[in-house]
Amino acid sequence: MMRDTDTHPLDSTVRIFGSRGFIVVFTVISISLGCVLSVTQENWVWLGRFGSLISISGLLATSSPLFIKGIYKSQSGAGRLASMDERGRLVTTTAKEREIGDTMILGIAIAVLGGLVGAFGEPAGEAIYTMFEQCL
Questions:
Q1: What Cα–Cα distance (Å) separates residue 71 from each residue in 48, 99, 130?
Q2: Do the strands 90-91 and 83-84 form a parallel or antiparallel pair, or are they unpaired?
């Protein structure tokens, strides 16, 4: 079986990991499960544990060009010539590349959130939950 030289065998399998929707849903589910387990088990260490999954979401988003464009093709546009937009400004990226860049920035933000949750989720969650209980 012949394949395109620029196509990695895993490209079709890993494409979902570059999807913003998948990454955001995975992040929200991770935070939610961490909070639910922390409340139901009355042990806020669970939120910190799920912080590592949030960091993984950030890593996936930051690596999104590998998944979206293809493992081999993720950097193939680097030598392309620039063009002009409708206002006469120089444009060196495509709309798809800008979208991928936005996903990478989202990934960095999610990775930072995951690190913060992992480091401070337990004491912060416990303090917030205790304050909430006292208000009731």
A1: 32, 17, 47
A2: antiparallel
